[in-house]
Write a structure and sequence with these properties.
Structural class of chain B: mainly alpha
Number of domains of chain A: 2
Order of helices and strands of chain B: HHHHHHHEEEHHHHEHHHHH
CATH architecture of the largest domain in chain A: 3-Layer(aba) Sandwich
Number of domains of chain B: 1
Largest sheet of chain B: 2 strands, antiparallel
CATH superfamily of the largest domain in chain A: P-loop containing nucleotide triphosphate hydrolases
Strand order of the largest sheet of chain A: 6-7-8-3-9-10
CATH architecture of chain B: Orthogonal Bundle
Distance between the termini of chain A: 58 Å
Largest sheet of chain A: 6 strands, mixed
Helix content of chain B: 55-70%
Oligomer: heterodimer
CATH topology of chain B: ABC transporter involved in vitamin B12 uptake, BtuC
Shape of chain B: globular
Strand order of the largest sheet of chain B: 1-4
Number of strands of chain A: 10
Radius of gyration of chain A: 20 Å
Helix content of chain A: 25-40%
Order of helices and strands of chain A: EEEHEEHEHHHHEHEHEEHHH
CATH class of the largest domain in chain A: Alpha Beta
Number of helices of chain B: 16
Strand content of chain A: 15-25%
Shape of chain A: globular
Number of helices of chain A: 11
Number of strands of chain B: 4
Structural class of chain A: alpha/beta
CATH class of chain B: Mainly Alpha
Strand content of chain B: under 5%
Largest interface: A-B, 49 and 39 residues
Chain lengths: 265, 358
């Protein structure tokens, strides 16, 4: 159990009569990029929301470094070292990029309410330290141009990077990326691939991501798990999963399906 | 146009960002400190009310403008502060202790009201706080042994260990000191982790949570600070009027307070002050202009309500960022003179925002 960074076992979620996630088990090893793929509605984001404890599973367990995540409330997850981004970008719109990154450092705050109210020397010191950390992330992701810009006015591609930066500011061990390339153009997707590789190699952060862009997936992931309708279809290297007949069927339909569409002579 | 060359982090954190700030805010403070010797007593009283409302406005601004929790029952906190002050100074407690108690009890009540905020959002929270406002008003009216019921309560001038602040000048300066202290406190919070957590909750609860911000803790904290400031304002209000009764803390007062922060400009500390100036000076302007209006308009009842309503609608339609937003535009226009563009302050519509997790 302990050699895996995160291990999900028999995860099941029901929303009323809908079985969103059905008996999903997987293990994420430290230092790898692990990707969830699958058609829309396969339950990938739901798995993310389970790990970040926005949802509680109907059944099953999630262990992170030997600790039961189910027993933690959602706001504990960041302090445990799990950070995430959102599919549709959930930034703090009416704050600057720098402020967004500083909020990312919230779990590392060192000062209490009273020292902040009077802004003691300690509070000043803590602020400067927090800014230094944020600047390092700005440097890492080349966000210098946008440091003081309001997020609300930024283009989509930049926001995506800011969100990644905000997640990095929590200094995570495990980074959950929900469709890091959605809405990005080819060039931005390439940049994203480089950053994900850098995050893994330079910062030593394990990445768990949901992604549709197969070129990005095969470029950066070590292992891939394919899901369909809440269940795991296949697991393995990107190539193995891509060639799995079940996966091809889930995306393209089976031979029988196609033949049924063919016009009868 | 001013360009600031930043060489270290403390420059960014400091409250006064450049010499202009130091100069203008010092000048403002000096002017305010010298006011009692310059302006007539009537206007000094109005200025005192501006300061008192600005304190309450700061609290509501923190709650509504920075944490995104709307309270339409804020007059109740004002009332809790006022009655606490009246009761304890009546028992002979010195002013500073009574004020601390007023703030503390209001904050405790604020925590209680903050608890539903953990479950309900937006307009539903508004309704819950309205209900709370009615309950508190009713308590003031019915708890006759303490509050004197509908016949109200008298309160003496503030007394600090034998030093009585009887004159209008002394009381004004006391209000000024408290206002400055409250403003500095709020500014300090806003430039540190606590304030950022509030802003995070306002903009996206879901990601605030996944950044490790405990929503329950920070929402109740925001309610507590906001209520404490309203309590302080209430205490000063009671001393200023020297007479309080339940109907001073009814829903109209709550709406006035909310109107103040909305017109001032949600999400800016300046807005609380601009809103307070607006709120106090508007009735004066209406009263002064009554003489110049045709009699059937000038003497019509409800003129003030009509004007307030029209102004609020106009602000929501044309200047959602309030008076402070308007000031920012004017300032930018002057700073970059011929290059101002019309759409500069237009915010991008957040159509990409997901509703999925709400």
């Amino acid at each position: 159990m302990t050699e895996h960074l995160l291990s999900a076992k028999d995860l099941t979620v029901r929303f009323g009569g809908v079985l969103a996630v059905d008996n999903v088990s997987f293990d994420v090893n430290p230092g790898e990029v692990f990707t969830l793929i699958g058609p829309n509605g396969a339950g990938k984001t739901t798995v993310f929301n389970l790990i970040s404890r926005i949802y509680t599973p109907t059944a099953g367990t999630i262990f992170y470094q030997g600790e039961d995540l189910i027993r933690h409330p959602p706001h504990d997850i960041a302090a445990l070292g799990i950070a995430r981004t959102f599919q549709n970008i959930e930034l703090f719109e009416h704050a600057s990029v720098l402020h967004n990154l500083l909020i990312g450092g919230h779990t590392h705050r060192k000062t209490g309410f009273w020292s902040e109210l009077f802004f003691t020397g300690k509070a000043m010191q803590a602020e400067i330290e927090a800014r230094e950390k944020a600047e390092r992330v700005i440097d890492f992701l080349d966000l210098q141009h946008h440091r003081d810009a309001m997020v609300a006015g930024l283009p989509y591609g930049v926001r995506k990077v800011v969100e990644l930066g905000r997640a990095l500011c929590t200094e995570p061990k495990l980074l959950l990326l929900d469709e890091p390339s959605s809405g990005l153009n080819v060039e931005e997707t390439d940049d994203m691939a480089f950053w994900i590789a850098d995050i893994k190699n330079e910062l030593g952060i394990t990445v768990l991501m949901v992604e549709h862009d197969m070129s990005l997936v095969s470029k950066v992931s070590d292992r891939v798990v394919a899901m369909n309708q809440g269940a795991v279809l296949a697991m393995g290297t990107p190539r193995e999963v891509q060639n799995d007949p079940g996966v091809i069927e889930a995306y393209l339909g089976s031979i029988d399906d196609v033949s049924s569409l063919r016009r009868k002579p | 146009m001013r360009f600031i060359f930043k060489t270290d982090y403390s420059q960014d954190i400091r409250l006064a960002k450049h010499g202009g700030h130091v100069f203008w805010y010092s000048l403002l403070l000096l002017t305010l400190a010298a006011a009692p010797w310059v302006i007539a007593e009537y206007w000094l009283a109005q200025l005192t009310f501006i300061l008192i409302y600005a304190i309450a406005g700061l609290g509501l601004m923190l709650l509504a403008g920075f944490t995104g929790q709307f309270s339409i029952g804020h007059a109740a906190f004002l009332g809790v502060g006022a009655y606490t002050q009246a009761v304890f100074t009546g028992m002979g407690l010195p002013f500073p202790f009574a004020l601390a108690l007023a703030a503390g009890i209001a904050a405790a009540v604020g925590v209680v009201v903050g608890l539903p905020a953990l479950r309900v959002k937006g307009i539903y929270l508004g309704i819950a706080t309205i209900a709370f406002g009615f309950i508190v008003e009713e308590v003031f009216a019915r708890w006759e042994s303490v509050t004197g019921g509908n016949s109200g309560m008298h309160i003496k001038a503030p007394n600090m260990f034998g030093w009585e602040l009887g004159s209008a000048t002394e009381f004004y300066l006391l209000c000024l000191v408290i206002t400055v202290a409250a403003t500095l406190g709020i500014l300090n919070l806003l430039r540190s982790a606590t304030g950022r957590a509030f802003v995070a909750i306002r903009d996206s609860e879901i990601s605030a949570q996944s950044m490790g911000i405990n929503l329950a803790q920070y929402k109740t904290l925001s309610f507590a600070i906001s209520a404490a400031l309203a309590g302080v304002a209430g205490a000063l209000y009671a001393h200023k009027l020297q007479f309080i009764s339940p109907d001073q803390f009814n829903i109209l007062q709550s709406i006035d307070l909310l109107l103040m922060v909305v017109i001032g400009g949600l999400g800016s500390v300046h807005g609380a002050f601009l809103g307070a100036i607006f709120l106090i000076s508007m009735p004066q302007v209406i009263a002064l202009s009554k003489d110049h209006l045709p009699t059937f308009i000038g003497t019509a009842p409800g003129l003030q309500g009509l004007v307030y309503g029209v102004v609020l609608i106009a602000f929501v339609l044309f200047e959602p960022m309030g008076l402070y937003g308007r000031w920012l535009k004017v300032r930018t226009y002057l700073q970059i003179f011929p290059f101002y563009r019309k759409g500069m302050f237009k915010r991008q519509k957040a159509f990409q925002k997901s509703d999925r997790l709400r």
